[in-house]
Amino acid sequence: MVENFMKRKIVFLLIVCSCFMPSALLATMKIMPLGDSITWDWHYGDSRTDAQRNGYRNDLWYKLKASGYNVDFVGSRHNGGAVRPRYDGDNEGYTGWTTYQIADRVYGFLRHSKPNIVLLHIGTNDSMYRSGAAAVEGVESILDEIDRYERNYHVEISVILAYIIQLRKAPGWVNDFNNHLKIMARNRIANGDKLLMVDMYHAVGNNLVDGIHPTSTGYAKMATVWYKAVKKIISKNQYSWLVPVLHSVLF
Question: Which domain holds residue 183?
C-alpha cells in the first residue's frame, strides 16, 4: 500500500512538473532538412570536403539546442562531421535535384527517417527545365506524397515550405515560381494541410556566393527564419508527437 502511494505520488509530481515545462522540451523533435544543393551546402567553385559542409543546418541546430529543445536532424545523408561546434549533419539534400526528383523519392525518405517536421526549400534547379507553374506542380507532388505517408502510417508531419531564394540569372522565373507556390500553398492550407510558409527570398536577399547559393551570411539568415518557424509550430502545441512523451516516461 505504501508502495502504491509512492507510485501515485511520483506520477503526480511528474504531471505537475510537466505543466511548467514547454511540451516540446519533453519530446524529441525529428527534423528533416529536405531539398537540393542549398540544403546540402554546395556552390560553384566549392573545394570543401563533405565533412566541412553545413549550410543553414548548423546554425539552426545551435539555436534550437540553446533554447533547450531536444532535436534530432534526420535523413539518409550526412555531412559536416568536421564542423565545430559539432552539430547533427543528417539531411536529405541533393545537389542538382528538381522538385520532381524529390517527389519520386520523398516517401522512402519519410519511411527511413520518420520526421515530425520537414524543412522544404526546393525548386531552383527546375528553372533549367520547366516553367515556374510546372515546377510548383512538382512541389505539390512532394506534399501529396507526404500526405500519403501520413495516411498510411497514421502520423502527422508539419511541413515548413519556403519561398525560394533569388536566382540572379533568372529573377523573373523565381518570382513566377514563388507566386504560384503562394497560391498552391494557400489552397492546401484552406483545405486543412499542415503547412507553414516562410520567406527565404527576402531573408537571404543578395547574400549569394555565385548568384545561386547563399553565402555564410545568407545561410545564417535562413537558419533564423527556420528557427522562428519551428518555434511557431511548437508554440501552437497542436501536433500529436508533442503529447505522449509523459506516458512513455511513466509507463
Answer: 26-243
